[in-house]
Specification:
With 253 residues, this protein is α/β, with parallel strands linked by helices. The chain contains two helices and 24 strands. It has a nine-stranded mixed sheet with strand order 2-5-8-11-16-19-22-23-24, with no helix packed on it. A hairpin with a 3-residue loop joins strand 23 and strand 24. It is globular, with a radius of gyration of 24 Å.
């Protein structure tokens, strides 16, 4: 290969590396600058946004903010939709329409659409792509396109400590109790009792905890061992390295 062609290829590769670094550095800066917090709300004016709460950049569709209240230490992932009302610029009265408790986590690409009241309790975690709505299309008239028929709305209540898996859907009128697990892809409607696991479409209870009998059906996996109080990250890394070394030694003939 001619020398000048080698030089040209090297310069092209260098430009690409520099451009890549610049793009990634710029995107990292935008993620930091574009995040929404109580101190840096940007254009968004929520009814309340608690201490330590953060909406990652880029945000999804957000409107009706005066009727949205976010508790303390919530984490809202990238491209999450949060809406109050059927469209922007409506007067929804004096009461909040969408309320998130403290410590709520909503995974990226999720949608929470509150045409009437939606309440999500403290420490509820939602995986990516979760869809929670208080309004659904009706199809009463067989001659009218479904999208043109007036929708039905009903309040949604999700209790504290719940876990909603990836792609879960919560429909109008749903009421989830405390510490409910919703399996990935489940479609939930109606009432779900405390300490239940639901799965399927439509979702049904597949496991439940009772004080007298514990989990029924019994759990197939052992309970996780909690990390002892006071242990440091360095000690955890040391234990992990020791376990790996023991595993390698056991595997050798």
């Amino acid at each position: 290969m001619p020398k000048n062609q080698n030089t040209f290829s090297s310069l092209t590769a260098l430009r690409r590396r520099l451009a890549s670094r610049a793009v990634h550095a710029g995107w990292s800066w935008m993620q930091q600058a574009g995040a929404v917090t109580a101190h840096t709300p940007g254009r968004l004016r929520f009814g309340a946004i608690g201490h330590g709460t953060r909406l990652a950049f880029p945000q999804g569709t957000v409107f009706g903010e005066p009727w949205i209240r976010l508790g303390d230490h919530c984490i809202i992932g990238e491209r999450v939709t949060l809406t109050a009302g059927m469209m922007p610029d409506l007067d929804l009265g004096t009461e909040p329409v969408l309320v998130l408790g403290n410590g709520v986590v909503i995974g990226r690409d999720s949608h929470v659409i509150a045409d009437t009241r939606i309440t999500i309790g403290d420490d509820t975690f939602c995986g990516p792509g979760v869809y929670i709505t208080s309004t659904n299309h009706s199809y009463d008239d067989p001659h009218e396109p479904v999208g043109k028929q007036w929708p039905r709305s009903a309040p949604v209540e999700i209790g504290p400590g719940c876990w909603l898996g990836t792609g879960a859907v919560v429909l109008p009128g749903a009421r989830l109790g405390r510490n409910v697990v919703v399996a990935a892809g489940a479609v939930v409607r109606g009432q779900v009792p405390d300490h239940a696991v639901v799965a399927g479409a439509p979702a049904r209870v597949v496991r439940r905890w009772e004080p007298e009998t514990g989990w029924q059906p019994p759990l197939r996996t052992p309970a996780p061992v909690p990390i002892p109080d006071g242990i440091t990250p360095e000690q955890l890394r040391g234990l992990a390295a020791l376990a790996e070394a023991e595993e390698r030694a056991t595997a050798q003939p």
